Amino acid sequence: MPMTGKGPLVIGIGNPWRGDDGIGHAVVDALAGAPGLATAKSHGEPAELMELWQGHDPVILVDAIVTGAAPGTLHRLDAREPLPRAARYSSHGIGLAEAVELARSLGELPRTLIVHGIEPACLEDGAGLSPDISAAIFRMSRHILKEFKRPRLDASR
């Protein structure tokens, strides 16, 4: 993918009207205004994600990830490798793992694509964020800001 030098981007994925599925959007809200960091919100539709991240590097996706761990558990996955399909990513019609693999097959992945997730407690319609998740939002935001200060592991890719 040709790079246009748009710099780092964090995309919050999810549906804030489904309880903790709003994790991605809440993290993006917490990061709004961070210097040198672009943010966007998405419901996770593959074409929308590919359009949002076009020309950005690195890109971090933030979503609810269901693995069976305790609510509020933070996850970090490097999408240079296929994402585990055993985990459920939020409550989207098409899973995040499938969206990333579709982008990979089309040659539309950013050079650096990291998925940060928080284990949800409640994914019910009309619910707000769970108390355990509110604290995790703050921790996740700090981790993401540190992510952009790390030396690039493979800047030659």
Quick one: CATH class?
A: Alpha Beta
Label the structural class.
alpha/beta
Counting DSSP H or I runs of 4 or more residues, the number of helices is: 4
Number of domains: 1
Description:
The protein is α/β, with parallel strands linked by helices. Helix content is 28%, strand content 23%. The protein has four helices and six strands, in the order βαβαβββαβα. Strands 1, 2, 3, 4, 5 and 6 form a six-stranded mixed sheet that branches. Strand 1, helix 1 (23-31) and strand 2 (38-42) form a beta-alpha-beta unit. Helix 1 packs across helix 4. The longest helix has 17 residues, at 131-147. It is globular and about 40 Å long. The model is unreliable at 153-157 (pLDDT under 50).
Give a brief description:
The chain has 157 residues and is α/β, with parallel strands linked by helices. The protein has 4 helices and 6 strands.
Layout: helices, strands, pairs:
Blueprint: E1 7-13, H1 23-31, E2 38-42, H2 46-53, E3 56-66, E4 74-78, E5 88-89, H3 96-105, E6 113-118, H4 131-147
Parallel strand pairs: 1-2, 1-3, 3-6
Antiparallel strand pairs: 3-5, 4-6
Features:
single chain; 157 residues; alpha/beta; Rossmann fold; six-stranded mixed beta sheet; disordered C terminus
